[in-house]
Amino acid sequence: MSGGAAGGGLGAGFSYQKFVYVALEQTRLRTALAPHPSQERFKFIKTNEDNSVFDALSFSAPKIRLLRSLTVEQKNSVQVLDFAAFSEPEYDLPIFCANAFTSPARSIVVLDLNPLFDTSEHKDYREKYYRNLMPLIDKYSELLPWGGKITSESLRFFSPVVIWTILEPTEANHQILYSAFMDYFKVWLELMDEAVQETSREKIDRNREAQHKYLTWRAEKDPGYPLLKKLIGECAAKDLVREFLFEGVSSLGTKSFLEYFPEYAQEDGTVNKKRSMAGKSFEARPWDAHGQFIGGDAGVW
Ligand code: BLA
């Protein structure tokens, strides 16, 4: 394929708006989306740079606690997509996670149904949600190959069907990404449709805490944060992260980051600012075709 539309040869010219638009359209075919309270607050995000545009949308629906999307577009340079969906704690649904950072040099992509519970430890959870999804990985493993070494801590938030890839930002790759994004999102919508409400208080509490742990991790360590800080300033970036992107971090639970991730504690009791304590690893995809983790000890915490 050639480099795309006239003048659009740079990958960073490709927009993620269509991804969001079509995903919302697909969602509305199945359920009734209502604006989430955070949507009004984050409608207009003031940026430090004239050429960058933020677009933030958030909704809830029956079974869906929060479905939110953020795109950032900088003319002819950077394009960002951060799209996620979280169920109500009455369901143990995986968290839909689509993150793409595209510059003229490359696209860094994570697309996954992030498990609520670590799939190496919780084999029942792996069987329940991922056993039937392994064909997704067969479909995309050549077109969207494993992106190489990655922050080790990230692995425990990933599922055996995660797409972690670094791509040349061509139009062809953008199309492949679009197709993978839609496939994964439709799977999530199907799981959502089929999900049966949990009635055991204990299980609901467990789901809620697992989601809170995930939100706590991402609100503190998300790789997008430095760029957000640069574009909108530290205060606004913190607010966006805690009250929009990972909304729920202040309300779904009371445990602190260090209670969940004590390995980040410094002697004076503050959180180590390093993104990773364990460093990068996993040169190759650490799951086999059946979704068994084959990455050795480094991935098991
Ligand atoms: C890089 N983003 C990365 C990397 C990953 C992710 C794995 C590669 C570096 C690394 O190994 O950490 C994404 N990591 C994730 C996701 C999870 C995770 C989704 O653990 C979920 C559990 N990326 C964004 C947004 C921005 C962004 C919104 O999603 C900017 C607003 C930027 N990501 C971004 C940039 C890099 C990056 C600039 C490269 C710089 C770096 O590696 O720090």
Helices and strands in order:
Layout: H1 17-30, E1 34-35, H2 37-41, E2 52-61, E3 64-74, E4 79-87, E5 95-102, E6 107-114, H3 123-129, H4 134-140, E7 150-151, E8 163-167, H5 171-194, H6 201-221, H7 225-232, H8 234-245, H9 257-260, E9 280-281
Antiparallel strand pairs: 1-2, 2-3, 3-4, 4-5, 5-6, 6-8, 7-9
Helix pairs in contact: 1-5, 7-8
Bound molecules: biliverdine IX alpha.
Biliverdine IX alpha (BLA) binds next to strand 4, strand 5, strand 6, strand 7 and helix 7.
Question: What features would you describe in this structure?
Answer:
- By secondary structure, the protein is of the alpha+beta class.
- It has a domain of 187 residues: 3-Layer(aba) Sandwich (oxygen-dependent coproporphyrinogen oxidase), CATH 3.40.1500.
- The strands form 2 sheets. It has a 7-stranded antiparallel beta sheet. A two-stranded antiparallel sheet has the order 7-9.
- A hairpin with a 7-residue loop joins strand 4 and strand 5.
- Helix 1 packs parallel to helix 5.
- The chain is globular and about 50 Å long.
- The N terminus is likely disordered.
- The site of biliverdine IX alpha has 18 residues, from strand 4, strand 5, strand 6, strand 7 and helix 7.
